[in-house]
Specification:
Elements (H helix, E strand, L loop, with lengths): L5 E6 L3 H13 L2 E7 L3 H10 L5 E2 L2 H8 L3 E4 L7 H9 L4 E4 L7 H14 L2 E4 L7 H12 L5 E8 L3 H15 L5 E9 L13 E8 L4 E7 L15 E7 L2 E6 L4 E5 L3 E5 L7 H17 L8 H20 L3 E2 L9 H8 L6
Parallel strand pairs: 1-2, 1-4, 2-3, 4-5, 5-6, 7-10
Antiparallel strand pairs: 7-11, 8-9, 8-15, 9-10, 11-12, 12-13, 13-14
């Protein structure tokens, strides 16, 4: 195993930025060499977690000065492309950032091209699949115990820009990253369009995989509850159904399965949502991908395909038809589409 130390610079020292600063430092394969935020208090708090590296008020200055191997930025989804460009221009090897890839497909296409042309790796925070309850269910699925998988249903109460690409990613992961044929979607409600993760209040859709599996996603205010989980943001459930039984897991902790060969079993306590369970292995896999020993399971190419799902659902809702995958550019940005098609309240 390599003992090379990789340097890291971080933009955005809010909640997620602090998590990254903490776990990059805890790993031992990384050294945080720069922090950048508009809020001094947040920079100070993040600095205390990672050895108090130099602080910068300007992102470009930080990257030019520190020349990091890894550039990590933790910002709202409307701030993506400029930071990708800055990272690539300053010769970083890998860029880590939050989901979703972008608020629109045109920008995602441009980001993907910039990264691929420069040979820069990228990862996104779709890290829930590291949690033990997800791993337990994935092992059951991969064992063949469910028979022929035919449906994967994922739902949560969190809204589109927070959660759709998460659910698309885990649905695709449980189906071994099979390619999609088409996506169809519907949306409702415009209250969340003004959120810092702008979204319809509710979105639902179907994903048709080339191997015949049907994926179903619901996010937002009209999605069903997950009574097995108490904490609102963790009310996330993924259910995999096959000809010989089913298995399901919950972000808030726990899993269950019932199959012809294995009978019924469950552990609604096993697994949790914390940094040690998901962020630590996510960071370790960054080191190993940079070493050249493995491809990161949250790599940018898969994240791009998750973005396609979200944007295809919006286009489908606007055009009243199934949208073929892969998804190309569009004349109108997806958030603008939502603003046009979601009815305004009558006063």
């Amino acid at each position: 195993m390599s003992d090379k130390i990789y340097t890291v610079a971080i933009t955005g020292c809010g909640k997620r930025g602090k998590v990254h600063a903490d776990y990059f430092t805890k790993n031992g394969r990384f050294k945080v060499v720069g922090l950048n935020d508009v809020d001094q208090t947040r920079m100070d708090e993040a600095g205390a977690l990672c050895g108090n590296p130099p602080q910068f008020s300007d992102t470009a200055e930080m990257l030019k000065t520190t020349k990091p191997d890894v550039y990590c930025f933790c910002t709202p989804p409307g701030l993506r492309l400029p930071f990708i460009k800055l990272g690539v221009e300053n010769g970083v090897k890998l860029i880590a950032y939050e989901k979703p890839m972008s608020t629109n497909m045109n920008e995602a296409i441009e980001m993907r091209k910039i990264l691929n042309d420069a040979g820069v790796k990228s990862v996104q925070s779709h890290q829930r699949k590291y949690n033990i309850q997800f791993q337990r269910v994935k092992a059951i699925v991969d064992s063949g115990e469910l028979g022929r998988i035919h449906t994967i249903y994922a739902h949560c109460l969190g809204w589109m820009m927070h959660m759709t690409t998460h659910l698309a990613d885990y649905t695709r992961w449980f189906n071994n990253w099979e390619d999609l044929e088409w996506v169809i979607g519907q949306v409702h409600g415009r209250e969340k369009l003004t959120d810092n993760h702008p979204s319809p209040d509710y979105m639902s859709g179907f994903m048709q995989f080339k191997n015949g599996v049907r994926g179903i996603i619901e996010v937002g205010s009209l999605a069903p509850d997950t009574p097995e989980v108490e904490y609102w943001w963790r009310k996330v459930k993924i259910s995999i159904q096959g000809t010989e039984g089913f298995a399901e897991c919950f972000v808030g902790g726990g899993w269950r399965a019932c199959t012809k060969s294995g009978g019924f079993r469950e552990d609604l306590e096993e697994g949790t949502w914390d940094g040690d369970s998901e962020q630590a292995p996510y960071i370790q896999d960054i080191a190993e991908w940079l070493d050249g020993t493995k491809v990161h399971p949250c790599n940018g190419e898969e994240a791009y395909k998750d973005e396609e799902v979200m944007c295809a659902m919006i286009r489908s809702a606007a055009e009243n038809r199934a949208i073929t995958i892969p998804l190309g550019p569009n004349n109108e940005k997806e958030l603008d589409i939502l603003d046009h098609i979601l009815p305004k309240e009558e006063h």
